[in-house]
Design brief:
Layout lengths: L2 E6 L7 H14 L4 E5 L7 H4 L9 H5 L10 E2 L6 E3 L6 H9 L5 H12 L4 E5 L6 H8 L3 E6 L3 H5 L1 H9 L4 E9 L3 H14 L3 E6 L2 H6 L5 H4 L5 H12 L1
Parallel strand pairs: 1-5, 1-6, 2-4, 2-5, 6-7, 7-8
Antiparallel strand pairs: 3-4
Bound molecules: adenosine-5'-diphosphate and magnesium ion.
Length: 240
């Protein structure tokens, strides 16, 4: 059975794509069969982080009926991480926004990917806030992970996400990103848990070396010995 983890946030820039890319590489290195699917059609990131060439078949092409999901699935690391990019060129965004698509195709893709690649884990990246792809992805989740910074805007997102999450059968968890240091971190964690009504499975600090990479390399590849790897591994064991 494939375990589906959906990573979501109320606001952009909370580190969802960064976390998922790193977690996928670490999981594959441990021998798990893992795929990433980027449902963030508005602002895709995983194709860039994994340096997928422009014009490769994508989730958008699949949703528009121009290819099968396996045509849109690319092996992006020697350890065997598979990636379905959201889209790899600009023109398809206009097409999908004007034409729309059958939302049933997304859960169908998740289950087909699990079967075809015999996946242990499917990691689903999402656009910030709520849209069709995100809500549909959430409905297929075994675990819904919410990434947030502890500031008032990210906490305000709970008003929208919590009522929706109550209707889902999945487990929920929080990952606090770019956390303040020291005693503030503990307070931040308690506040996030109170507001979102879910346990925290990871608290990631702001890491200057990660920001300095500027997306040129995935952190786990550039700094495999960094203490952040232990944090990512803890998140993996709590979510999977
Ligand atoms: N823990 C961190 N410390 C420092 N910078 C980070 C951290 N996590 C992510 N970033 C940076 O923040 C930016 C946004 O991250 P990203 O993963 O694209 O967020 P999202 O997918 O939630 O929009 C990127 O430039 C990324 O390198
Ligand atoms: Mg992203």
């Amino acid at each position: 059975m494939t375990h589906t983890v959906v990573m979501h946030s109320h606001r952009g820039g909370t580190g969802k794509s960064t976390m998922l890319a790193n977690m996928a590489l670490l999981m594959a290195a441990e021998g798990r069969r893992v795929a990433l699917i980027d449902t963030d059609i508005q602002s895709p990131a995983l194709d860039v982080l994994f340096r997928l060439p422009h014009g490769e078949c994508s989730l958008t092409d699949y949703l528009m009926g121009s290819c099968e999901i396996e045509d849109a699935t690319h092996q992006v690391s020697p350890e065997g991480v598979y990636l379905v990019p959201a889209r790899t060129d600009a023109s398809s965004l206009g097409q999908i926004m004007t034409r729309g698509y059958d939302v049933g195709l997304l859960p169908e893709a998740f289950s087909r990917l699990g079967d075809l690649y015999d996946l242990d884990v499917l990691l689903v990246d999402t656009h910030a806030g709520l849209n069709n792809e995100t809500v549909t992805s959430m409905a297929s989740a075994d675990v819904l992970a919410t990434a947030l910074r502890v500031d008032r805007v990210d906490l305000a997102g709970a008003d929208e996400i919590v009522p929706l999450a109550w209707q889902l059968a999945c487990r929920r968890a929080l990952v606090i990103s770019m956390a303040p240091e020291g005693a503030d971190a503990e307070q931040a964690r308690k506040r996030a848990e109170r507001v979102y009504g879910a346990p925290t499975v990871g608290v990631l600090p702001y890491v200057a070396e990660l920001a300095a990479l500027g997306g040129n390399q995935i952190f786990a590849e550039a700094h495999p010995g960094h203490p952040l790897m232990a944090e990512f591994r803890e998140i993996i064991s709590a979510l999977v």
